[in-house]
From TrEMBL:
Name listed for the protein in its UniProt record: Uncharacterized protein
Domain of life: Bacteria
Keyword annotations of the record: Signal
Organism: Cyclobacterium qasimii
InterPro entries in the record: GH123_cat (IPR025150), Glyco_hydro_123_N_2 (IPR053850)
Residue intervals of the Glycoside hydrolase 123 N-terminal domain: 40-167
Signal peptide as annotated in the record: 1-19
Stretches assigned to the Glycoside hydrolase 123 catalytic domain: 459-691
Amino acid sequence: MLKLVLLLLLFVNFSPANANDYGFLVNKDTSCKVWWAESTYKIMRDDPVPTKKRKVAIQSARNESEGFQIVLSPEVDLTNVSVSISDFSNKNGDLIPSLNVTIREVDYVNVTKPSGKQHSAGWYPDPLPLHEKPFNVIAGINKPLWFSVNVPKDAAPGRYMANVKLKSALWETTIPVELHVWNFALPETPFMRSGFGLYSNMLERYHNLETKEELEEVREKYFRDFKHYKISPYGSYPVNYKVTGVPWSGGTFDPHTVYEGKYTYQISGKREARFTDLIEIIPDHPYLLKWQAKVLSENQKYTVTVKCYDEEKKPISMSLKWGVYEGSETWRQDTLFIDTEGFITYEELPDYRPFPANAKYASLQLYPYVPGSSSEEGTVWFDDFQFIDLASGENLLPEGNFEQKVEDLDLKLDFSEFDVEARKYLDGMGFTGFRTGFPGLRSGPYIGKKTGWFNGFINGTSEYEKLADLYFKGFQDHLEANGWLGKEYFYWVDEPKHEEYDFVREGMQTIHRAAPKLTRFITENNPGPEIMDVTEVGCPVLYKVDPEKVKEWSENGREFWSYLMCWPKEPHVNLFIDSDAINMRMWLWMSYRYNLKGILVWNSNHWNGASSGAMPKGTVQNIWEDPMTYKSGYGTPYGSAPEFGNGDGMLFYPPNRDPNNDKTKYLSGPVPSLRLEILREGLDDYDYMMMLEKYIAEANPNQQGLVLKARKVLDFGSEVFETDTEYTKDPEILMEYRQQMGELLEQFYESKRE
């Protein structure tokens, strides 16, 4: 029967649902018409009131949150409308308290710049602020209310009833609501893994936060909503470390540009390099600093400075000694002489050459430019650097040859902050994983072949390999000892281009060499074996998913996720506000069919702030008034910021509706979006599917009839979707399947107990 119904609906499958085709009238009088619809609809302000009638009736598993919408379509203006709901009760007196029901008002944002050519401008439902006080409604404009019923995991199965009361000064009505609780429970941790970004700087700016403690309080509330919506944040799981045995910092031990020995020291950009220890000096001794240097561009200026410290190792003011040099593209010796008396001038500034009488120590700094001037940054190499006490003839800087003893290197990991976060969120909230990385996988401040860089050493050197091995092996061992191994995903490179594949492969192999149990992760616009073979998790953008490749690579032990982003637009499945409601739910149905195990969205609160180029200087974007996501930063001038799409990277709204003028400190949590609610419905659907698979795999001989029915339901076809551009826009088709799955899961559960 289900297949017949779906086939009859097939001719409208791939067209947007018509407003006349959904919703059910539940009350009609001269003041207001009241109707309802399931969760997977975007009810527009001017959608017509349905003529079909049906009571409000929803179904839910235990430990599930099920949503529905009640819509007020007033014939006259109504003021001070209040909304309440009673407890749900069954015939045995069992209760699901009204406290388990969250009531939200469906708010609208004005889309003035459509996300794409097939999108439209207009007022779209998306923010879902809590219903906290009475509101007014205007005749002729729909006012939807969103109800989420959180069914306890120990609720008695069966039929429950509750009443929704709508009341204003001169009008009121009561709407009965029926809830059927199926006799099975969804798991505490969803089957679908996920990763969603959350920017702390956006929380600080839009909530007007001032302290670390306030940020932690607000972030915790966002994370609670992450749990409620069955998604996992990238998270903040800091792993601190300390490297010892390296006497220089700020530059790179360069094995490719050599004067003598194994390394020279390269410094690039606007960086300062320094000798990490203080050098003990005698103030009345003369000193000579000499070294070999070369620069990237002829006559490029670089600087050498010496600063003095007293016996307590506190800096002495006005004690800086410096020299500015014009370098050569070939190696050349330069010097800095520090005499015991007199001074010289440089560019009309006095340079007091003698060390102060109270000087006990000196520090050494190297710059590839002239600090405090407008000189261009550059690149300089040093070697054979000596700090000679001319009175004794001793070189006080033997480390100036920039050679390194591998055996002196060590790295210690500190998991104290990490463990607090992991126990709270992985163990406590059941998040499915966390994003992590390693600073040494990036190229760092090294000019040359693009390669990993860590603490001054580049990938391929024995020093880099030792430090990386200590980090990854220590990380793996700690995760394994605490039961967290497999929750991590090393997501350190995003959408690499083909010309970057060698660099990516090098980094991925670095992880695997030291810690083969760690999970490597990559997002790919062009997934393929030339890079996927060095990851445990591949994550292509949804429209690029190749089911045959996923099948092949999954059989070889790989896992695949997918992500949605600013591209492509309609008619593809997407996450935009100005798109069909079913998109976020369809993502999970496609994921099941394609055997994908995770979903990812780059951010959940990209409100743009002040750096997007979308707003005048000194102001921030108000996402409540302009929901377009703009490409941020990069010096984009005002008015020219590229548009990503409405709601891209933005699934939560800040509680502050006027961030440029309202400086109130908001310590409350976020305002979720309708898209996020619908995404959770899809995640529940995915749980249903995976639970059916589990029952099929574990079925006993007496359950074979149920197995056949379950396989048929899970074998949905073109009536749901053919591709990510050809899919049903009618939520009723998904709801029919969900109904079948819920009934089968209940039967499996009850037959297993017999």
